């Protein structure tokens, strides 16, 4: 399927029949298709399929060739892969890169939840060769905070239906670049910081103070703040606000909840504070953002 007019096109696919594959994919799964513009095909690393799959034990995929590279992160459960005459397993917390232009098989070990991005173009192949090396594929725990944050950003961008090829490309370069740095230098790994991030992701809707977060990892507020910035290049407060804004964008897109309700559910102390923070991070108010998303969705339906 090609885009002859050179214009980008994005849509959410129906997963009732498994999206791109059949069998084992549960109804809560989501898949987003993006046909890149002519510029993206010639100049950017672009993501053609982005998905979040919830699968049972029957899920399995057999392919001889699929013209993309695959980045996948397992959220829970496990998967098996057969590739390059090898069989191996991928478990919760792992990230894998695969060149799908070669024969491959993968499937669920029991039940599994995973996120995936099929990408190509730009320097995709060069990065893949750098990371995969002689092994033929890349596999390691997704411990990097940068990688986790970039993947989260990509899913926020595609699910809020304001797909921007340049922003998606920037996040893909961010992931591949960070994985390459980890390979050469070793990633900055700190259990306390990773636990703090997990805590923020689970409790972002609550009234969280930096002191309370630091208490969860048994560190003083001062030392925790310094350590967090060292590992992530941002302060704990900035990370928390960005997380809340990301969730707010999703709610503004997929729900009819009021701005006041969304502000409360995303942990903002007041609607005024929410609107101010949203404008600073997104460049418009929540209502303007929702209006733009709605207009773009209606425009696509008419085409």
User: What distance lies between the first and last C-alpha atoms, to the nearest angstrom?
Assistant: 17 Å
Order of SSEs: EEHEEEEEEHEHHHHHHHHH
CATH topology of the largest domain: Jelly Rolls
Rg, nearest Å: 20 Å
Can you identify the CATH superfamily of the largest domain?
Answer: Regulatory protein AraC
In helices, the fraction of residues equals 40-55%
Low-confidence stretches: 1-5, 184-188
Count of runs of 4 or more consecutive helical residues? 11
Tell me the fraction of residues in β-strands, as a range. Answer: 15-25%
By oligomeric state, this entry counts as: single chain
Describe this structure in words.
The structure is a single chain. By secondary structure, this protein is α+β, with helices and mostly antiparallel strands. The chain has helices at residues 38-43, 124-132, 145-159, 165-185, 191-203, 210-216, 221-232, 236-254, 259-265, 271-282, 286-302, and strands at 9-13, 30-35, 46-55, 60-63, 69-83, 86-91, 94-99, 104-120, 138-141. It folds into 2 domains: 9-185, Sandwich (Jelly Rolls); 191-302, Homeodomain-like (Arc Repressor Mutant, subunit A, Orthogonal Bundle), CATH 1.10.10. 46% of the residues lie in helices and 24% in strands. Strands 1, 2, 3, 4, 5, 6, 7, 8 and 9 form a 9-stranded antiparallel sheet that branches. A hairpin with a 2-residue loop joins strand 5 (69-83) and strand 6 (86-91). Helix 2 (124-132) packs parallel to helix 4 (165-185), helix 3 (145-159) packs parallel to helix 8 and helix 8 (236-254) packs across helix 11. The protein starts with 8 loop residues before the first strand and ends with a helix.
């Amino acid at each position: 399927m090609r885009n002859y007019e050179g214009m980008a096109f994005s849509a959410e696919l129906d997963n009732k029949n498994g999206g791109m594959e059949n069998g084992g994919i549960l109804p809560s799964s989501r898949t987003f298709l993006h046909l890149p513009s002519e510029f993206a095909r010639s100049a950017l690393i672009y993501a053609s399929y982005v998905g979040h799959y919830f699968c049972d034990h029957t899920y399995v995929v057999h392919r001889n060739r699929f013209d993309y590279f695959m980045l996948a992160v397992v959220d829970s459960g496990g998967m098996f892969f057969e590739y390059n005459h090898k069989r191996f397993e991928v478990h919760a917390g792992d990230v894998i890169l695969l060149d799908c232009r070669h024969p491959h098989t993968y499937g669920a070990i029991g039940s599994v939840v995973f996120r995936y991005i099929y990408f190509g173009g730009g320097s995709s192949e060069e990065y893949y060769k750098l990371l995969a090396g002689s092994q033929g594929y890349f596999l390691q725990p997704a411990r990097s905070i940068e990688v986790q944050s970039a993947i989260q950003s990509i899913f926020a961008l595609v699910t809020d239906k304001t797909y921007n090829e340049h922003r998606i490309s920037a996040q893909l370069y961010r992931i591949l670049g960070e994985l390459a740095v980890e390979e050469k230098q070793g990633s900055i790994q700190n259990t306390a910081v990773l636990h703090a991030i997990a805590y923020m992701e689970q409790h972002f809707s609550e009234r969280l103070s930096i002191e309370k977060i630091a208490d969860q990892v048994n560190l003083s507020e001062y030392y925790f703040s310094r350590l967090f910035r060292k590992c992530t290049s941002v302060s704990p407060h900035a990370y928390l606000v960005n997380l809340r804004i990301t969730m707010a964008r999703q709610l503004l897109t997929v729900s009819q909840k009021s701005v006041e309700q969304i502000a409360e559910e995303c942990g903002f102390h007041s609607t005024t504070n929410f609107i101010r923070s949203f404008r600073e991070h997104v460049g418009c108010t929540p209502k303007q953002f929702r209006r733009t998303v709605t207009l773009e969705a209606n425009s696509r339906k008419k085409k």
